């Protein structure tokens, strides 16, 4: 996990593991939506999730193009965009995939304003 808003494409023509910006035709719209979420999140907006073992990982403005972060061939985000015209972003909300129940109220507070801002945009 991490704390970042990721947008298409997750796959790239070269299928390199990381570092390839795979721009969609709607790249500016996706960046706008990802920033709408990230800019209201207290951790995501810093671009420094500081996840254990990945402390050096950073995301400018708290967002990333999926394939630039890591290549995912055949992912749902790309499939939905290409085949269903669904503008989908992926939200990584925690360094921990399954945070303990005791942390859920804090996670809600971290994400509430982001979620409302995102809903207003879409």
Automatic annotation (TrEMBL):
Domain Peptidase M14: 1-122
One Pfam family from the record: Peptidase_M14
Cross-referenced SUPFAM superfamilies: Zn-dependent exopeptidases
GO cellular component: extracellular space
InterPro entries associated with the record: Peptidase_M14 (IPR000834), Peptidase_M14_domain (IPR050753)
Keywords: Carboxypeptidase, Hydrolase, Protease
A biological-process GO annotation: protein processing
Entry superkingdom: Eukaryota
MF annotations from Gene Ontology: metallocarboxypeptidase activity; zinc ion binding
Active site (catalytic residues): 92 (proton donor/acceptor)
Family affiliation: Belongs to the peptidase M14 family.
This protein's name: CBPD Carboxypeptidase
Organism: Melospiza melodia (Song sparrow)
């Amino acid at each position: 996990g991490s704390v970042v808003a990721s947008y298409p494409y997750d796959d790239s023509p070269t299928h390199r593991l990381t570092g390839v910006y795979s721009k969609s035709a709607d790249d500016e719209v996706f960046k706008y939506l990802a920033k709408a979420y990230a800019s209201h999140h207290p951790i995501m907006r810093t671009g420094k999730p500081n996840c254990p073992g990945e402390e050096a990982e950073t995301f400018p403005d708290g967002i990333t193009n999926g394939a630039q972060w890591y290549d995912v061939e055949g992912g749902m985000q790309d499939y939905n965009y290409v085949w269903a015209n669904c503008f989908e972003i992926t939200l990584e909300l925690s360094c921990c995939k399954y945070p303990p129940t005791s942390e859920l109220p804090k996670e809600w507070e971290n994400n509430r304003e982001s979620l409302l801002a995102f809903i207003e945009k879409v």
